[in-house]
Design a protein that fits this description.
This is Flagella basal body P-ring formation protein FlgA. It is found in: Periplasm. By secondary structure, the chain is α+β, with helices and mostly antiparallel strands. Helix 1 crosses helix 2. The N terminus is likely disordered.
Length: about 250
């Protein structure tokens, strides 16, 4: 303490207290700064945390059939607390929804008692039926009209098709531009008010008859059809072009 400050204390107790308060506040700030810096995450520690989050996503989230899954962890603020964990980092998440675009992963080190929540962005690609040229409403799709492309599945708003055989012979329900991904609502494998073949499977026997579709349907859809002979309305599953199968 300088002579001037000692003299200040002797003249004014209030000023002396203010001096000591400022002095100790400065010391506390410097102590906090150096202590904080010594425990902040290094670049290597941040990379390991990101890697743990990404590896968890790639192992826990279901991959698209015939496609790829990429995981990109968000950047980590190097001011956060982290250490060289004595054991492997543990990663977990409350969600593993394969359709999500982002999943938050908890990365923690139980030995050193710290944990971080890391947002991870998912990019899913998969095979989707895509048009090679423009299609008109009511057009019957041929093998020359479509192809398979690997696309970002986030672009697919509704259920698409991963196999061209699922759409060959189907009828378009609207005009479709070249290069568009075909979605289930774009085509009907079985079309409303059109004649279909009804297959009835019972005890290993198959009986076929003609019927009329009462709704549109894609492969696998459950739809209502009317038996043209009995006028009975039944439900069956779309199993092919203009074909509905009923299992008793």
């Amino acid at each position: 303490m300088t002579y001037h400050n000692l003299r200040l204390c002797s003249l004014s107790i209030t000023k002396c207290r203010a001096f000591y308060k400022n002095f100790y506040t400065s010391i506390a700030f410097l102590f906090f700064f150096f202590s904080f810096s010594s425990t902040s995450a290094t670049s290597e520690q941040a990379n390991l945390i990101q890697q743990a989050a990404e590896e968890y996503i790639l192992s826990a989230v279901e991959w698209p059939v015939g496609g790829t899954l990429e995981a990109q962890a968000a950047n980590i603020d190097h001011r956060v607390f982290a250490t060289d964990c004595p054991s492997s980092l543990k990663a977990s998440s409350s969600s593993t929804n394969p359709s999500a675009s982002n999943i938050t992963v908890l990365v923690e080190c139980s030995e050193d008692n710290w944990k971080l929540y890391i947002p991870v962005r998912l990019t899913r690609t998969g095979p989707q039926v895509t048009t090679l040229g423009p299609l008109s409403r009511g057009q019957i799709i041929s093998p020359q009209d479509v192809t398979i492309n690997m696309v970002d599945l986030q672009r697919v708003r509704r259920q698409g098709f991963s196999n061209v055989e699922d759409v060959i012979g189907a009828k378009t329900k609207k005009n479709i531009r070249s290069g568009e991904i075909l979605e289930s609502d774009d085509v009907c494998v079985v079309c409303r008010n059109e004649t279909v073949t009804i297959k009835a499977n019972k005890s290993g026997m198959t009986i076929t008859t003609k019927g009329t579709a009462l709704t549109d349907g894609a492969h696998g859809d459950q739809i209502r059809v009317k038996n043209n002979k009995s006028n009975r309305i039944i439900e069956g599953r779309v199993t092919g072009i203009a074909e509905v199968t009923v299992i008793f």
